[in-house]
Structure prediction request, 639 residues.
Amino acid sequence: MKQPSSAFTVWRARWETIANNRKALPILLVLGLLLSFAIPQFNLVNPYIQLIIMYVGINIILTTSLNLINGYMGEFSVGHAGFMAVGAYASAVLTTQVLPSELNPWLFPLVVLAGGIAAGLVGLVVAIPSFRTRGDYLAIVTLAFNMIVKSIIENIEAIGGPRGIPGVEKLTTLPWTFFWTVLAVWVIRNFIYSNHGRGVISIREDEIASDLMSVNTRQAKLLAFTISSFFAGIAGALFAHLLQFISPRVFDIIKSTDILIMVYLGGIGSITGSVLGATIYTVLLEVLRPLGMWRMVLMPLVLVLLMLFRPRGIMGLREFRWLIPLQDLLGSKRWRQKKEASDATPAN
Amino acid sequence: MTYFLQQFLNALQLGSIYALIALGYTMVYGILTMINFAHGDLFMIGAFFCFIAAGLLKLPFVPTLLISMAGVALLGVAIERVAYKPLRNAPRVSAIITALGVGLFLENFTLVFSPYPQSVPTLIPNQTWMLGPVSISSLQIIIVLLSIGLMILLDLIVQKTMIGMAMRAISWDKAIVPLMGVPLNLIISITFAIGTSLGAAAGVMYAQAFPVIDPYMGIMVGWKAFISAVVGGIGNIRGAMIGGFILGLVEIMVAAFMPSTYRDFVAFALLLVLLIFRPHGILGKPRPQKV
Prediction:
């Protein structure tokens, strides 16, 4: 019998060497940083594609941070755009109304940080109901939170009310997007593989059992919500200074649904999945633009088909190996050897 | 006081629409423990069926209502068979995301054929009566009475018939009951048909009460009906009715006595307060957690 998939196996082997090579990570990072400076400097690609790259970066931050709650903690948060709105408004108010405009380019990292901190503080407030309610009821709390944020912004005249803030300076550049994206992914990955992160994952598996095993579930929930909303705020700040116009309507439930779709497209509980999901979704929406209105019909169909044939998303609960810290990898290898050894010699 | 009574009537009208939609959410949840996020969009399809039957085919009210209910029920059953059934044993969230995808598909598919808001002709002759100082329109009476009638009918079906007994049994235990000879797929299909046709009825009434319809109208109404289902205790049919009326009352009263831009804010803040004191809704029972 001929082997029909010989080309496929060759590509698969190559793909796996790339995906598992730990040296790839620093090389990719340095290359990415250089490219992010070079692209706007020498106009390597046209501005439209640069814009899409920046949106991809922002969406990666949003998706990874939501994955921390929905994927790793196993809750169902549907109000991520609310945190994004807090970050966007906090930073946009700073640059348009508080800070002198000539200082804006220099203070931009601090402004983004301020947006993240504002959203993180709000995230603390939302974490408190999560101590008592779970599942669908917590989903309602986050949904209500999203609508309340939108409603409050609409009712404050000082920040434009329903009209929003026009004329935000365009400060988000490719290097900054790259920096914040890498920072978000790096922090969340390290958090997940830390002791606290294990606590968060144990809540997903079984909250009562992890409580009995003396995991401080309240602290873990607080941490997860705060980190997640902090990065949502950072994404919001970058988004506001890229779009140059924000209004409450941008951050409604439809935006939250978009982020949810990216998370589940990539797969829950996987950082690689979040990065891939955000990239594929954003790029696909742009590539299909010539289809006009039918693109919005096609995208949900693709999503439904993906869920039917791969219910866990693209990378659900799996990870590129170079994203996993070395000691975890070695640990799991030792565990597998031990298991294989014990399977080979069953104890009676 | 007169003003209050007048607004109370409006609240009854809105609340009965919310309650009808919330019933669909809660029935599906009770049986499948799955949130059917496409339900708000099925409500929208119901309103568009009303537009097609009444605006293009010039049918009167009762055939329009029946056509819309039947059409949406078929659509709901088809969606369940194609999109949800293969995911019954998959992780719960995959089914939820599929439902979100189906909802988006319905919205955008309708948008392709009707990019502009459509206005629905009124089918019920508009007549108002004065009850003392309060005026009641024929539309309000029909909406409230019809919804209450449908709810009583549903309650009878669920409590008194064999099908209802099978539904309650399946929501009690999905693994054992099919072994007793209860046809699981048939009962789930019937549940979807009933739930979505109630949503379609709400859609027709909504299109009569607020006659401009567009493909995105189901999003907000759907989420609000979902909230009413949760307030009443999701999975509980009588709870969904109560939750719908409560949400309608709160929304109308806030809009009546405060600046109307505070409507969403106050309504949702009240919800949060309610969930703090009754984390499982008004009629919901906390399920015992096992380790």
Remarks:
- The two ends of chain A are 42 Å apart (CA to CA).
- The first helix of chain A runs from residue 6 to 20.
- DSSP finds 14 helices and no strands in chain A.
